[in-house]
Amino acid sequence: MARKPSAMLRLPWFEHRAPRSVAEAAKILAGEGTRAMLIAGGTDLLPNMKRRHQAPQVLVSLSGVRELKNLNGTFGAGLTLSEIAAHEKAPAALRHAAVQVATPHIRNMGTLGGNLCLDTRCNYYNQSYEWRKAIDFCLKKDGDICWVATASKRCVAVSSTDTAPALIALKASVKLVSAKGEREIPVEALFQNDGIDYLSRAPDEILTEVRVPGGWKSSYWKLRRRGSFDFPILGVAVALKLSGDVVEEARLALGAVASRPFLVDKAGEFLRGKKLTDEVIAEAAGMVANRAKPMDNTDMDLYWRKDVADDFAGYALRELRGDDMRALRLKTARQIP
Predict the structure, then answer these.
(1) In a domain, 306, yes or no
(2) 264 neighbors 251 (Cβ within 8 angstroms)
(3) How confident is the model at residue 72 (pLDDT cuts 50, 70, 90)?
(4) How far lies 211's CA from each of 89, 190, 222, in Å?
(5) pLDDT, tens only, 178-200
(6) Residues 157, 20: Cα–Cα separation, whole Å
């Protein structure tokens, strides 16, 4: 007897455009308006299209735009995460973040710009169309209620980009280009604390490059259930400027605990002018944990995720102090309760 074929998620129909320059891509976006979306590696957009989260009528591919592969003093948004991870001159926190995204196959396709613009995630949103329809759609797509926080007037889907907290800590900026012109903004200004409108990038703008100032000593630590593949359920990035063993400037950023990655200003201010003693690290790490407000819409228990935020901030600071943290990096990746 023939076996009944299983249900398969299929892409909706769309037109495909393949510009060869940023200017050409910007012109297409301006002409197509809301019908069009950009695609680079497609590792986030294509699964979303299969689940009917997005249904653009036109995909504007950036894979053939050589300008976006720039490595002359800036990081082109079209560089793959594998290229970023292997780039010896990339800051440590950015390499740590890039090499921990998903699997090698996805890192070979996914781009720096794509990871920065990654859609927010939620247990109630990242499901098939049929699953979402069965419980009634959520506020982020087609519904009028947030199933995580039912009294909330905004979506609380979580930012799950790894590279953003690293670049925020590094005081990086991004260039946005459209047919109307270009602008440069700090990476932290790219994000908004709303699970639906999570980017300040306009729909007709293209994120073309990332500028990272030098002089920082940095680290990024990621928490996830499995040691590979999974999205972060906590990301901690730390960047320091040191004069001997005294902190001149400090920037600490959190990811995967809100709808946007963000700086923990209080911890950075506290560290300025101090040596990284055990007591100072513990105090700063506690300030980081105090700002972590995870919601119950991703993997693992939210209270446990908040509790370990100060541990992970401490790991990053101890690593920058010079402690050998290689064994602990492996342990934290493999031994999640």
Answers:
(1) yes
(2) no
(3) confident
(4) 13, 13, 23
(5) 999 999 999 999 999 999 999 99
(6) 34
Who's near 181: CB < 8 A, 6+ residues apart?
A: none
Range of the domain at 234: 217-331
Q: Work out whether strand 234-243 and strand 75-76 pair parallel, antiparallel, or are unpaired.
A: unpaired
The single residue listed with the structure tokens 């990035």 is 237
Shared domain check, 96 and 204: yes
Instruction: Give CA 211 to chain center in angstroms.
Output: 16
Indicate which CATH number applies to the domain containing 183. 3.30.465.10
Dist CA 91 CA 166 (whole Å) = 9
The pair of structure tokens assigned to 256 is 């995967």
Question: Are 87 and 223 within one domain?
Answer: no
253 and 198 share one domain: no
Query: Going by C-beta distance under 8 Å and a sequence separation of 6 or more, which residues neighbour residue 11?
Result: 46, 49, 50
Contact 234, 312 (CB under 8 A): yes
Based on the fold, state whether residues 193 and 298 are members of the same structural domain: no
Q: Is the four-CA dihedral 177, 181, 186, 190 of positive or negative sign? A: negative
For the beta carbon of residue 249, count every other beta carbon within 10 angstroms.
16
Give the pairing of strands 58-61 and 75-76. Answer: unpaired
* CATH number reported for the structural domain that contains residue 310 in this entry: 3.30.390.50
